[in-house]
Amino acid sequence: MMGMKRDKKDEEDASGGNPFHNVEKTAVLQEARIFNETPVKARRCTHVLTKILYLINQGEVLGTTEATEAFFAMTKLFQSKDVVLRRMVYLGIKELATIAEDVIIVTSSLTKDMTGKEDTYRAPAIRALTAITDNTMLQAIERYMKQAIVDKSPAVSSAALVSSLHLFKTAPEVIKRWVNEAQEALNSDNVMVQYHGLGLLYQIRKTDRLGVTKLVAKLTKMPLKSPYAACHLIRMVCKLIEEEESAGGEVTALMDYLESCLRHKSEMVIYEAAHAIVNLRRTGPRELAPAISVLQLFCSSPKPALRFAAVRTLSNVAMTHPAAVTACNLDLENLITDSNRSIATLAITTLLKTGGEASVDRLMKQIASFVSEISDEFKVVVVEAIRSLGLKYPRKHSTLMSFLSGMLRDEGGLEYKASIADTIIAIVEDNPDAKEAGLTHLCEFIEDCEHTSLAVRILHLLGREGPRTKQPSKYIRFIYNRVILENAAVRAAAVSALSHFGATCEDLLPNILVLLQRSQMDTDDEVRDRATYFYSVLSRKQAALNSQYILEGLQASLVTLEKALLNYVQHPSEAPFDLKSVPLAPVIEERHVAPTGQLDGGGSRATPASVAAPTATRLPATATRQDVYIEKLSAIPQFDSFGPLFKSSAPAELTESETEYVVRCVKHTYAQHMVLQFDCTNTLSDQLLENVNVAVEAPEGFDILVSIPCEKLEYSVLGTCYVALSLPESVLSSTGTCSATLKFTVKDCDPTTGQPDSDDGYEDDYVLEDVEIGVSDHIQRAAKASFGTAWEEMGSTNELQETFSLPAIRTLDEAVRNIISFLGLQPCEWTDKVPEGKSAHTLLLSGVFRGGYEVLVRSKLALSPEGGVTMQLSVRSGDAEVSELVASAVG
Amino acid sequence: MDNQVLEPSLYVIKGIAILDNDGKRILAKYYDPNTLSTAKEQKVFEKNLFNKTHRANTEIIMLENMTCVYKSNVDLYFYVMGSNHENELILVSVLNCLYDSISQILRKNVEKRSLMENLDVVMLALDEICDSGIILESDPTAISYRVALRNDDIPIGEQTVAQVLQSAKEQLKWSLLK
Description:
Chain B: Its main location: cytoplasm. Chain B: It comes from Daphnia sinensis. Chain B: Keywords: Cytoplasm, Cytoplasmic vesicle, ER-Golgi transport, Golgi apparatus, Membrane, Protein transport, Transport. Chain B: One of its GO terms (biological process) is retrograde vesicle-mediated transport, Golgi to endoplasmic reticulum. The structure holds two protein chains of two kinds. Chain A is of the alpha+beta class. Helices cover 53% and strands 13% of the residues of chain A. In chain A, the strands form three sheets. In chain A, strands 1, 2, 3, 4, 6 and 8 form a six-stranded antiparallel sheet that branches. In chain A, strands 12, 13, 14, 15, 16 and 17 form a six-stranded antiparallel sheet that branches. In chain A, α5 (83-96) packs parallel to α7, α13 (209-221) crosses α14 (227-247) and α28 (473-485) packs antiparallel against α29 (488-504). The longest helix of chain A has 21 residues, at 227-247. Chain A is globular and about 100 Å long. Chain A starts with a helix and ends with a helix. By secondary structure, chain B is of the alpha+beta class. In chain B, a hairpin with a 2-residue loop joins β4 (66-73) and β5. The model of chain B is unreliable at 151-157 (pLDDT under 50). Classes of the chains: A alpha+beta, B alpha+beta. At the A-B interface, α1, α3, α5, α7 and α9 of A face β2, α1, β3, α2 and α3 of B.
């Protein structure tokens, strides 16, 4: 034993004071045998136990057998009276509880300790017991736990409360019975007990809003001693305010309480309240002012964490209420030189959001001085700020661009680089003056870019934007360099980009063809295939082919295309496969960015990713709603002759949601027909409906061809009936209103079994709301990558122009949304985002009318001085009547 | 976006770590099963954290969607991690509690060697400060009272030579400092 000690001492010296330097798992587990010796050698055992816990903490994994053996050896140590050893045993139990087997063996020892006289044992014993307790055992210790919660020792009470919180996850029902004890803990003199009591009480009452309201009302009147508890209460109040707001309740008292917390004596609570106020949705300039002034004070605190917290919150406020933060500009300026780089960065980005155009150059210079020292997360924050700045002050693009390109050249991870590229792309999109410079920077970047996905996106952008610049030829070199130097994915993207140049710039075509020819020798299949494909398309020198097969991508839905091809292969026919028969993929609508984000131009954040990779915004290859419909409809033989499905509308409710019968209507449009699909639900459990159909009065020019009833409609089982209409010859009369009535035979039935009482039923009907057939039902959204080219190509043969005044619409944004929903067209080139503060806007829309006529709409909008919006609508399409119909849809 | 109301919950601490001056872990606990749940992720995170923090002693940093507050002394680095929406001052209060309790336990001798020698008590202190992410106690005096019950009258037979020497040294040092 002495020898061992000496060895240990030598190690100690060698490892610079770490007695655990060379601990090894198997050796330590061997040593654990000492646990079995009697009498227990407390010091030695503590040391060995510490070693085991240290090993586990270092990430060493114990197997189940090893853990179980160690665990059982450890239980022997309950004989010792040594306090530290006993408490290490508790720790050991908690650590091993999840790995070892049969851990409940120590339940009785722990229960004894938890109810015993020794205070220092009771609290940790409760917590150790929690770690090994399951639901069945919880019943047995429930009485002890309830007692412990109201124990006079704060440590015991806290331990019991915290343990209850942990147990709430698995056994909420049992814990809910302890509400009275938790209530008593809330009144404790000890700050931590109060905090934990509040936490448990809230957890129990969380789902009961009235309960929370009462609790909050009580607590806001009595000052809480614990700052933690006060912070927790503030969060509860905030949650309540948000909930009450959406339910239309009254929140003034709660807001007043939050404001009063700004005068609390603890900084923690003051900050929590300020943070809460600025983050609430309902907060306006009036509520904001006191919170901002508190944060302003914090900006000059000697504590870095407080400065950090303050400036971080201010930076968030600057997104939504830049004007409110201007008052702090001076304090923020002082923070630019803060030794904590995170604080300095946040200060600068906040200033960039609130400051004027004049300060941009100076601020950028200051960021440049330390940008290399901050973490990637913050660099992304800086980049975000620069993006919104670029959108706000287009004239500053050269400063910003050169800064961004400098950042691109520095070290950094993919996320960081991608955010810079996104920003450059966003600025390029937004500001035509910046385009050339931006593209040049991106070209330089891909010369030395290790991220394949980023290089592919940039090449895609170059292919789209490059040909439209003044001097497209200078990009060719950069792109072709990729073909020589990069991996297959990048080479393929580069080949595609080259083909875009070839398709658009005639003078470059011969050179491009040579380059493509060379790429046909590539080692990679994909690259070779692309080169061959583009070469053969381009060498025909036909503009129509170029635009159809190179500039516009595939618009058919991939899943349906796959099915159609499979079908074609299984039933071979002489006729070649017709791509036109595959319906277009509905363009996925981008999610609306939260309104708060749009205020500073941050609303554009959703777009940049899709700018570079339009294909990425398409749904992954799962069956879409439309594919489901196609499957259902193609099973009905009566509809076979209608041809392929062109479009399905979104379901429209024809009844209130809480009525006896709920009916929803989906309109399916074919080239010459329309099928109305009625999804009916019977919400009466004592009725069985039979022979259910919808009687439709079709508008002028529509003919009802066939009506397919639903034979039986049981309680809460969805049934479907169809009505097929033929569409009028004249496109102009394609819109109208159908009145609809649900007709059926009712049989009373037994609600429990669903069996009808008798065979006799009676006829009944139920009036539904009208089915509106609008222009949008005949139009499928289809994006155009380049609206201008398509517009020119279409020519002015079927152009129609009309001017409308829309007095009821107050903002351009609202006008844009209305027009899109009326026409059912796809906005192009991100013109559906109206830049903040503009009084005029041009919206570009495109789509396909049933029968395959392309429709392009250019709508110029302007706010008229006397309120309302004036709109000039220009429509071009492949058919004069279609143009007329579309033009008449708005108004 | 940051504009979200914090869900009222007592689970505020995502992790606590003590590293040495090479960035190696002495003790570390991660409480959120959704973040850094594997040992490998934790090691990578700690390495990253240490690289970002060991040069500038500036108390707070955001890393991997977490707010980390830290403090260092001689050859030890103390970290407390919370969600990036968490009240920074709560995290700082926990950090201060951690540091002050350990300082009391080690009798103001906050350095690696002495911490390693008292690792068992330090482990207990950590356990008393935070229980699975809930702040259990924030008063360093209460913590050191609850854990530092080491009797000085250890049976001489169980004391190692080193310990005897160490305690002698300690006593001498304190008598000189006074």
